[in-house]
Amino acid sequence: MPKLAVAAAVLLVGWLIAKAFRLSVVKALRALNFHVLTERAGIDGFLQQGGTERDTVDLFGWLGYALVILASLIVAFNSLDLTQATDLLGKLLLFVPRLLVALLVVVFGSYFARFAGNAVQSYCRGAEISEAEVLGRVMQYGVMVFVVLLAIDHLDIGGGLIQQTFLILLTGIVVALALAFGLGARDRAAALIERWFPRDDGKRST
Question: How far apart are CA 141 and CA 119, in angstroms?
Answer without folding.
Answer: 14
